[in-house]
Amino acid sequence: MTDWRSLGSLAFTAGLAVGAAAGCGQKSAESTPSGAGTQVLVTAANIAVVESRRLEAGVTFTGELVPAEIVEVNARFDGDLEAVVVREGQRVRRGQPLARYKPREMTDAMEAARAAVQAAEADRVAAESAVRRARRLIDAGAMAPSNMEITEAQLKAAEARVRGAQAALATAEENTAKLDVPSPLDAIVSRVVVHSGDRTAVGDPLMTLVDTRILELSVTVPSEKLSSVGPGTPIEFEVDAYPGEKFTGTVDRLNPTTEPGTRQVRVYTRIPNPDGRLMGGLFASGRLISQAKDKAVAAPVATLRREGGEVVVYRLHGGIAERLPVHTGLVDEQANVVELDGAVALGDSLLTGVLPGLRSGATVRILATSGAATSTPTMDSETESQPGVSAGR
Fold it and tell me: What secondary structure letter does DSSP report for 6?
């Protein structure tokens, strides 16, 4: 059961305003038990029917949809691009070529690497010979031992150069054998920043790939709402691209720290998008559903009125306004509907809006569609001109 003082939403502000507007009439109602003789004019718009419906409450949010997987493809080596073989918006498979380098430069680089290996090998052979000579001279007493240390250090340096040249050769051979730039995943080409004939250096950006089969929605919620939000919490949202259509997902994870200066907590939601209808960059607005109730006895928030220390509604019964104290439960702020607990029942007609003179026992006259009042105050005759309006119990 919801405490009236805790209903601090815009929806309930509207309900309180209605109660305040009827306050003058209520003072006389308190001094006069019956409103007999008082007549209140209403239209069909001032009548709401109590119904059974699903109510949902939660934290509203706005945010931006982004692809869960974004990959920047960068150049693996220096060289000239022979061709860029994909375009923006094109779907690609893992391993599919995205661009191709000119083979001549790669071949020249491989030949240069082979020559470097040969030169390093020759230096190592010369260093090994120097070590053998130095050992003979030391054995003969013709060289100081300190010179031997220098010669051995030169051999180690030569061996290191050989290993470095061999590694460079292996890389050059691999680059020559793989002139194509492969796609690292199944994705869609989002951005291409190079063209055929461009020269690239190692690490230069080539293109951006995105996988939109899963989108991520990142939003912030007040830290005081954390008790009702966690992994698995359902969400629903709308995007401007599809007016009136609702999309759903569940909370995937929460950031362990609050946003600096705001005390807000960032919540991340993964949105399945197998058909690709949603796109990265779309603006989304919706709510995290922290509470829900099926088949709740509910009516518009505007039917509530604050009178003294009570929350009341006015039921239309046989053409007479009947005052009923109620308790409120779950509030669906998005639908502007509230759960009611009390003497109300499904199908009851409740009065809404600012209605001067409204009090218990007042006669209610329903204006015809043309705006003229009907000739009789009885409920039955009035509702004949208002299709769909319930006469209450």
Answer: G
Provide the pairing of β-strand 187-192 with 205-222: antiparallel
What is the domain range of residue 145? 108-163
Q: Which residues contact 84 (CB under 8 A, 6 or more apart)?
A: 98, 99, 192, 194, 195, 196, 206, 207
CA distance 102 to 108: 11
- At residue 138 the predicted structure's pLDDT band, cuts being 50, 70 and 90, is confident
Q: Give residue 351's pLDDT.
A: 93
For 221-232, what is the mean pLDDT? 85
Angle at 298 between CA 297 and CA 304, to 5 degrees: 130
Cα 222 → chain centroid: 16
Residue 144 has a pLDDT of 78
Alpha-carbon dihedral sign for residues 295, 296, 301, 305:
positive
| Boundary-marking domain end, from 292, 323, 339 | 292
The verdict on 377 and 300 lying in the same domain is: yes
List b or e across 316-337, with b for residues whose CB sees 16 or more CB atoms inside 10 angstroms.
bbebbbbbbebebbbbbbbebb
pLDDT number for residue 35: 61
How far apart (Å, rounded) are the C-alpha atoms in residues 267 and 358? 47
In the predicted model, what is the mean pLDDT of residues 81-91? 94
Q: Residue 327 pLDDT > 90, yes or no?
A: yes
Pick from 16, 119, 28: which is nearest to 359 by CA?
28
Domain count, the chain: 3
| CA distance linking residue 128 with residue 158, whole number of Å | 9
